[in-house]
Structures are given as structure tokens and as C-alpha cells.
Amino acid sequence: MQVAVSIAGPGHGLISIGRYMQLEPSDRPANLRCAGAGIDGRRCGGHAFAKALGSTAKAPHFAAMDHIEGCDEARAHSSAHDAIWATSPEGEDRIITRITLTPDLPGRHTRAASSPSLPGAADVQAGVRPSPTVRRPRRSPLRGALRVLIGRGYPPDYLISWGSRDPMPAEVFFVHLERVEHADDRPRGYWGRVEEAIRYGPTGAVHLQPRHGPRVVIPRATAMSLGLTDPAVLVGLPGRHILAVGTVRRSKTGHLYVLVNDRGAFTQVEQT
Region Disordered: which residues (predicted)? Predict the structure, then answer.
């Protein structure tokens, strides 16, 4: 796990392993919990701890031994297959991490979740050459990706895949809603914190408005499948962080908005 929850002290809330390592040992939070959630959305809260802080073989990370059943962080893991090789302009080989995002929905299988990823056009443009030992990329549910974005964020040269589309560098794929400036037909991961959530009367769609930037529009059928049309759920959305994979459109009035048509392309986490 790259992110955990500190439940005590001045730094309580989400903390990334990068931030944890920057702290002096005496200042590091000792009471950590898993930031994951079960298939029913219930928080895991398993006791977490830092591992491999001084290892030369493994990257530092958080771990937990008592995840609840179905915890998405228990499913997410790194392995020797997480890396692919790329050649830098200077001709030096280096390792690039490729992550395939998958829906949070239990029992939902997509090409991203079930099929091996083959090198695409973006791989060629990036100078990636597959290693014989690479069989699959690392997989991460959207909710786990959102926690990483809220924490330290992804290194810019990580490659992010969604569905069957060619991967993009993380700094291109993930866009904070405050930085959206123009329409874009490429499905990308738009994220931020919701300030207002409403059902738009004429269409029944759910509109999620951040403090700055375009609103996220979830059509009625998709919103219903996600349970977002329930008034009790809708009223609890302000203050939560969201990640939506969609395209940026321009309305008839000239306003930009992010359109999300796939129920598997949206996730949310509570601000801790």
C-alpha cells in the first residue's frame, strides 16, 4: 500500500509512504490503519505498518495483516511483473512502472481487469521495449488510485492504462479538475473535491461541482446504477474526493464539463 490513514496526532488523515519517510523517526505516526474499503464500501481500518524502509530489494510501502474481507488494498500488490523497460534519450535502460486501472465494482470483468496488456502505440512512442519476464502490468482499482492522488501522487513517468486504450504518462492521464482548460475527447482521470452535488431536473443527471473547475456530469442511468440518485447519498457527496474517467465536453452555453458514461469509471473516498 502506498497510502495509509493516521488516526492520531497532528498529522492525522491520509499519509503517503513518501511523506512518512520524510518525517523524522520520532515524528512518524505509530497508529496507522489501512485506507482500503471492502466491496460494500465499508472502511477496512486494519492495523497498518511501514515495511522495507531500508531495503535495497523492495520499495518502501505500508502493509496490514488484518484486512476486512474484499478490501481493495489487499488485492492491490506489486510484483516483479510491475516493471517494463524503457530506453532514455541518453541510451540508458531504466524501469518504467505501468499500472492498469480497474473498476471498483465487485464481479465486474473488463479487458483492463482480465486481459494481458500488450504494448501499444504509446509504448512505442515512449521507447518502451517489453521484457521477456513481463507478463502483466500492475493493477489498481480506481479507489486505490484516488487515494494515491490525494496523498503523494504518482511519479510523472508512470504509465497509466484504462481499458483497451494505449497507456499515457501519469502526468498526462490524471488531471485535477482545477486544471481543466479545454475540451478533450481522450478519456482521462479527472479528480478533485466535490463542493456541491445536485440532480439536474430536466435530465435527472447528477452534477458534481468542485470549488474551481468544470462540473462532473453523470447521466441518470449511470448515476442510478451507482446509487448516487439516492437523496441520502447525494447529500453526503460534498466534501468527498472523486475520480472520474471521462471526456471533457463543452455545453451549449460554453461551459466545460466532464462526462462519465461508464459506472465503472467513477469512484469516491471520504475526506479523512
Answer: 104-140
Alpha helices in the chain (DSSP H): 17-22, 72-75, 111-114, 121-125, 142-150, 170-173, 220-226, 231-234
> Domain limits of the chain?
5-64, 175-270
* Among candidate residues 168, 183, 230, the one with its CA nearest the CA of residue 204: 230
Domain 175-270 matching CATH 2.40.50.140: the answer reads: yes
pLDDT tens-digit series, residues 72-100: 887 554 433 344 444 444 444 455 678 89
Q: With 50 as the cut, is the pLDDT of residue 119 above it?
A: no
Give the whole-angstrom CA distance, residue 255 versus residue 262.
Answer: 22
133 pLDDT higher than 70? no
Q: What is the pLDDT of residue 209?
A: 96
Question: Chain-centre distance of CA 151, in angstroms?
Answer: 11
Contact, 263 vs 229, CB < 8 A? no
Q: What are phi and psi of 105, to 5 degrees?
A: -65, 130
